[in-house]
Structure formats: C-alpha cells, structure tokens
Amino acid sequence: MEMLTIGAFAKASRLSPKALRLYDELELLRPARVDPETGYRYYAPKQLEQARLVAWLRRLGMPLADIREVCALEPAAAAREIRAFWARVESETATRRDLAAFLVDHLSRTAPGNPGRPGSPVNPVNPSKDTAMLELRYSALSDTGLVRPANQDTAYAGTRVLAVADGFGAGGAPASSAAVEALKFLDHEPLPAGSVLNLLEDAVQGATQAVQEVAGPTAEIGTTLTAMVWTGSQLALVHIGDSRAYLLRDGGLFRITHDHTIVQSMLDEGRLTPEEATAHPQRALLLKALTGGGPAPDLDVRLHDALAGDRYLLCSDGLSAVVPEDIIRDTLTAASAPAEAARALVRAANDSGGPDNVSCVVADLVNTEPQ
User: Fold this and answer.
1) Where would I find the H helices in the chain?
2) HSE-up (13 A, CA, CB side) for residue 185
3) Across 76-105, average pLDDT
4) How far apart are CA 157 and CA 201, in angstroms?
5) In this predicted model, what pLDDT tens digit does every residue of 260-313 receive, in sequence order?
6) Ramachandran quadrant class, 354 (left: phi over 0; alpha: psi -120 to 50; beta: rest)
7) Could you report the per-residue pLDDT of 114-155, keeping only the tens digit for each?
8) Distance between CA atoms of 317 and 357, rounded to whole angstroms?
9) Residues forming beta bridges with residue 130, ordered by sequence position
10) Kindly report the CA angle at 228 between 355 and 212, in degrees rounded to 5?
11) What is the pLDDT of residues 317-364, one digit of tens each?
C-alpha cells in the first residue's frame, strides 16, 4: 500500500504535523507505520477520512476525549453522539447568551449619563422613559390526585418566589418541602438585578444541603425543583428534574425548562420520537435531582425577560405527564385569574385519571401603571 509522509498527509487532511503528532500520542489517529530507525510517521490514504472527521470535530469544539469515543463508533452511533453534543452546546450557549444580555442591560442602565434609574427597566425605544411597572400576581395549588396515598409535592407562590418540587422515595414529602423552604427567604430579601444570580446560587446551595439533611446518605430519597424569582424586571429560573416551567405569551405556550430524564436524553439524541417517548416504560426515570447521595448536581440557572401580560406555569409531572400541552395552553388562556387557572389544571389532571400528585403555580405579570 502506498504510504503518505506526515507532511503529505498533513497537507491532504488539513491538519498540521504538530496536530498529527499530538493525535498520535492521544491515540486519536495513529500512523499506519512508524520507521523503527528514524521514528518517521507514515499514513495510509484510507486514514484521510478519519483525519478529516477529527479536524471537523475539533472545529466544532468537541473535547479530545469525546472525539476519541466518537471516532470509535459506527457512523450511525457517531451521528447520534454528535447530535447530543451539539444539543448540550446549544443549551449552554443559550444560558450564557441570556447572562450576557442581562449584564449588558444591567451595566447600560447604571452607566454614567444614563437617564434611567439604576437597576430600573429602560425603554429601548425611548431610553429617557422608564418602562411600565410590573407586578406579580400568583396562586399555588397542590393535590394528592386519585391514586397516590399521600402528597409528596410542594407548591409555593409568594411576592418574589414561585416554586414546585416533586419528592420521591420514603422521605419524598419532607425532601420537597425542605427544598422549597430553603428558597423562601428570597421573598423578603432586596433583590438588586445585578446580584440576583449570586443570591439564587446561594439559595440553591441551601436547598441542596436541606435535602441532604432530610434524605441522609441515600440517593433513593430526593426531589425535583423548579423555581422562579422575580426581580421586578426579570425572572430568574432554577431547575432540576422533570417538573416544568411554561410561558404563555401572545397565545403561544412555550416550555422553558428541559427535563433531566432518561427519555429526554434519548429524544435529544434522536433515539426516540416524541410519540415513542410518551409510552416509554422509563419516562419517569430521572438523570438529575436533589438527593442525599453523591455530589451536589448542577442545576439549570438562567434569566428570562418579562413582559406585561405574560402568564407563567410551574407544575409537577403529575400534570405534564397526563394533560397534553394544547389542553394546558387552552386552560391557561381561558382562565381569567391565576387561582382559576390552577384549579382548572388540577381538575384536568384528575379528569385524566390523577395517577400522581399534581401541583401547579400560576403567575401573571400585570402592568400596575394607571392607564
């Protein structure tokens, strides 16, 4: 077989000789032959395809350890891994994008010469005119359902904090309660926009420790947690597990959380269709939750811009698993007030068999300025 020198192979693959030597050391791309006397590397033409794949994956930003695993897979499996990697990148990028937008907005408000009040929302069309003052109006409701003997959910709505937690295991009820209790102090804390993420991270650490104290060393006891904190101009979201947050805006319903479940990961990787996911036997199996066992997990934390007229729903999977999203949307749209919406959603879950505890928090952002 005709061999290519490292220089010729580098030119053909568009990888530098330095990169090829590194990939040899890392066992990503071993040469076909190494001269035993000179140590000179030679490559086979058929290795060009793998070399180009490595180069493309590096340009994609994939870590070398992940590239090694992808290159060892069959093409279909490699495609699924690349799809899953890019889904993670997009999720992380969206979080950083929201944070960057928040920081730009916050620093622009407080810059010298800016006529807006520090920390106050500014009208992007006319910066000299403050935007409308918004108020959060809310309701929380939790129900045992028609099958479970006890309620392990916790739902809470206050002037700043909205939260739903779905406990599991023998101590699921105290675990969900402990997680939510650890956030309630934010209802009474001043929340300047620039420090809300720091405050939320501190609260999340407190929630994690509280659940660990309840659960002890076992991972069999724990809770999901989906919560939002109102700053007066934005909502900060923290999420882990398969409870959900939705936004109803201009007649459209948008899910703003990502389930941390086995089935959701299979959907992300293209291994399941949405129709298959609804009937999957492991659809309730969590990948991440607050538990007593193991290290503290990473939670999703991000910021959302708020508009007058927005309606938010936080719910446990006792609702989302049995009531289709179009029914949830119609129910939220039809209800005139948060309390009415929460009652109607719980009733819809029970009308669908009520197989699980069901909890809802509904909150409206209302313009309080005189018209």
Assistant:
1) 6-13, 17-25, 48-60, 64-71, 75-110, 172-181, 196-215, 262-268, 274-278, 317-320, 325-334, 338-351
2) 11
3) 74
4) 19
5) 998 888 877 777 777 777 777 677 789 899 998 767 778 888 888 889 999 999
6) left
7) 544 333 333 333 333 344 588 999 999 999 999 999 999 999
8) 8
9) 122
10) 70
11) 999 999 999 999 999 999 999 999 999 999 999 999 999 999 999 999
Residue 229, C-beta contacts closer than 8 angstroms, at least 6 positions apart:
160, 161, 162, 183, 186, 191, 196, 199, 200, 203, 235, 236, 238
Tokens 């990697």: give the residue: 85
N-to-C CA span, the chain: 83
Tally the residues of the chain: 371
Tokens 């897979």 correspond to what residue? Answer: 73
**CA-CA-CA-CA torsion sign (39, 40, 42, 48):** positive
Lookup: tokens for 356 = 């699980």
- Is-contact 362 163, C-beta < 8 A? no
Residue whose pair of structure tokens reads 């916790």 in the numeric block: 154
Cα 4 to the center of its chain, rounded Å: 47
Cβ neighbours for 324, distance < 8 A, ≥ 6 positions apart: none
- Calpha distance 203→197 (Å, rounded): 10
